[in-house]
Amino acid sequence: MNHPVLGTLTAVPAPARPDLLAEPVAVALAGLDAGRIAVAEIDPDLADTAAFCAAYSSPVERAANCVVVAGRRGGETRYVACVVLATTRVDVNGAVKRRLDVRKASFAPMDDAVALTGMAYGGITPIGLPADWPLWLSPGVAGADAVVVGSGTRAGKPAVPGDLLASLPGAEVVPDLAR
């Protein structure tokens, strides 16, 4: 099962390799059309987007990054997961701050993001996030036939159709999310 966004890697249907997925990701697959998601094993040292794309000839314009943003208002911390193409950046201080309705927004501290998601830093994915979190996607991600995202671990990379990501619980396409 080869997929162009995975470059030179050979992939299998994600349910066939739960060892390449974090536990919350594997659990979330049960409620999805998981046969549409392909996963490939990678060197964990090459999990970061630029290194992954260079090593495996994956097109960087088809890679997506999922980042966790935290904002505070009135003593309450609010989290959101934002997914944008790797060739863009999340507009944390504009779109995210306004939509999250917080005074200050920033990338969540690594320890918090890992503990709250149950996923490895550098492998956080939109699949299997905490149910009460909003999930915001850039139009480029939602409209892609497939993007490469994290698997919740640093040992795998899945290719996921954009429309499947847009159908995840709490997902919303946010036009001005990426810049």
TrEMBL record:
Lineage top rank: taxon: Bacteria
Sequence ranges assigned to domain YbaK/aminoacyl-tRNA synthetase-associated in this UniProt record: 44-154
Alphabetized InterPro entries for the sequence: YbaK/aa-tRNA-synt-asso_dom_sf (IPR036754), YbaK/aa-tRNA-synth-assoc-dom (IPR007214)
Official protein name in the record: YbaK/EbsC family protein
Alphabetical list of Pfam families matching this protein: tRNA_edit (PF04073)
